[in-house]
Structures are given as C-alpha cells and as structure tokens.
Design a protein that fits this description.
By secondary structure, the chain is α+β, with helices and mostly antiparallel strands. It is built from six helices and nine strands; from the N terminus they run H-E-E-E-H-H-E-H-E-E-E-H-E-E-H. The chain has helices spanning 20-39, 99-105, 115-125, 136-144, 180-190, 218-238, and strands at 49-56, 59-64, 78-81, 129-133, 149-151, 169-171, 173-174, 203-206, 210-215. The strands form two sheets. The chain has a seven-stranded mixed beta sheet, with helices on both faces. Strands 5-6 form a two-stranded antiparallel ribbon.
C-alpha cells in the first residue's frame, strides 16, 4: 500500500480491526519504535509520540500514552482514541466497541497531548501510522525557512515519493500551538496531498517544536521520518 492516497486508503494495522490481539501487537510495535527514536535522542525524556491506525469506520487509533519515558514503553502503554484524539474507554463520551479493551488489557487512559493531530493526519492523509519527534535538525530547518523548506535535485527525495531531479518539493512549516484544533487546521492548510502527477509530502515541521511524519504503516512512517531528517541536514549544510 502507498501513503497519501487520501481518506479512502485502507491503511490499518490489521484487517481484523479492533481486537485484543491487534491492540496488543500494535502496542508492542509502538513501544519498539519509540525505543528506537529515544536511543537516537529524538524522543528525550517523555517527549514525542507515535500512533497506529486500528480502524477507519469509525476512526480509531492507538497512541502512545502521555508522561512516560519513550525508551521504556511496554505494549500496554497506549491509549485508544477516536477521530478527535479523545480516549474511547469506559465512561468516555461516545465510547464505542473498544470500551472493554482498555480494562481487559490494562491500557493507559491519558493520550499524548498531540493525539488530536495524529488523528487529523490519519483522517486527512489516509496514513496507517504517524510519528512525532523532537529532532534538532527539523527545529533548525523550521527556524531557517519558516515558510517551508524547499528541496530539489537530491537523491533521497525518491525515498519520500518524489523525483531526485527536476521536482521542487516543499516540507511545510507551521507555527506551534497548544490547541490541536488550530494546529490541525494549519496542517490541512499546508498539506500537499498526492495528485495524478506528484506524490504527497509525508512530513510536517512544527516551528520551535519538532516534526511529524506518516506512512501506510509504521515502518514506512519511520522511513519517511529518517529520510526527511537526512534531507533537512543536507539543506542546512549546503545553504
């Protein structure tokens, strides 16, 4: 499956949908990826968050829990959230079929603050997974080019779905905001989705904060993040 196909994309963690085994496996995958990025220094302390899309109708995501060391997560350290990024467990407003899973699996109940933006990205782009880290290069690039980082004629652009030559790719930059509705609106304003002739841009820099990247699944989201970070390093080094 490819990323950025739009809201109709079937990118979900498992065709089985929202089940105990699917949620447990998703939690383990998120914990492993979080440890990877913590080791790189991209998720210092409790910073950063990751998500996996579990279902689309209605939209349900597993998001890493708030306030936990991202290098020490377990498969239970996730929160099930809806299309607004709100917890869907027992007692939550509009709770759905996932009520019992939070209790039976001992899942967390407080999602990361940016869960709302993860949900917005999953809905708008059709992504199956999203990653948000506090990588220094992305922050530096957002400071250097607040209107967006222009990349072209770089080989690694192929890794994020673009041509290595003759194509101008812009990694969008938005201002940081604590209100995820505002930040989500800004994301939609600058999002460059796929067209018949060019691929989407699967990354977003939030100024003075960090970077989001997404993909059809967690592995592709990781590739997009790592490649975008490397491309930003080149842009800064050659300006």
């Amino acid at each position: 499956m490819s990323t950025g196909t739009g809201a109709w994309a079937p990118n979900v963690f498992s065709a089985d949908g929202l089940t105990a085994s699917t949620v447990t496996a998703a939690g383990a995958a998120l914990a492993a990826e979080a440890a990877r990025f913590a080791a790189l220094g991209w998720m210092p302390g409790t910073a950063g968050n990751l998500s996996i899309t579990l279902d689309r109708d209605p939209l349900r995501l597993a998001v890493t829990a708030s306030g936990l060391d991202k290098g020490e997560l377990t498969s239970n350290d996730i929160v099930l959230v809806d299309g607004n990024g709100d917890w869907t467990g027992a007692g939550a407003v509009g709770a759905g079929a996932d009520d019992g899973l939070t209790e039976s699996l001992g899942l967390a109940r407080r999602p990361s603050a940016e869960a709302g933006l993860h949900a917005r990205i999953a809905r708008v782009t059709g992504a199956g997974a999203g990653i948000h880290v506090h990588a220094l290069t992305a922050v530096r690039a957002g400071h250097a080019w607040p209107e967006g980082v222009v990349l072209q004629d770089l080989e690694m652009l192929k890794g994020i779905g673009h041509s290595a030559h003759g194509e101008r790719v812009v990694i969008p930059v938005v201002q940081n905001h604590q209100d995820m509705q505002v930040l989500g609106d800004d994301f939609e304003r600058v999002y460059a989705g796929r067209t018949d002739s060019v691929g989407e841009v699967p990354a977003l820099i939030v100024a003075n904060h960090g970077i989001y990247a997404w993909g059809a699944d967690l592995r592709q989201a990781r590739w997009h993040l790592e490649l975008t970070e490397a491309l930003l390093q080149i842009a800064l080094a050659t300006r």
